[in-house]
Amino acid sequence: MARYSVNERAVERARELISARQYVLDSDWGERQPRADGENRYLESHTWDDYAAWHLGLTDGASNQTKARYAFVYGDFRRVHRSGIIACHYRAAEFRHKEIELVAHDLLQHLDEVAGIA
Fold first, then answer.
1. Is the pTM of this model over 0.85?
2. Given 12, 26, 42, 45, which residue has the most CB atoms within 10 angstroms?
3. How many other C-beta atoms lie within 10 A of the C-beta of residue 62?
4. Given the DSSP bridges, would you call strands 80-81 and 23-24 parallel, antiparallel or unpaired?
């Protein structure tokens, strides 16, 4: 099983976007989650650092500037999706990636606080 470390830059970027109210509260993550073709289009006009900032996890041992390096996408390359954070939390919890799980949990709490969800 792959091992992941927390992408602190992505966590910071997600918090910034949430604080700036750049989020979607209700979405079908299965429909909104970036697919390979969307990722490729994004990379045509953005840097790998920009791409990395949308992923909460870094795959241990994978090379930088490869898609395999970045895991646990939380948004659609424009906005944070609450359902994306929930998916990250769930998947991390399911496969016992505790650090990612806790980061996703904290981001969800921050989003809910900013959005006024009690």
1. yes
2. 42
3. 15
4. parallel
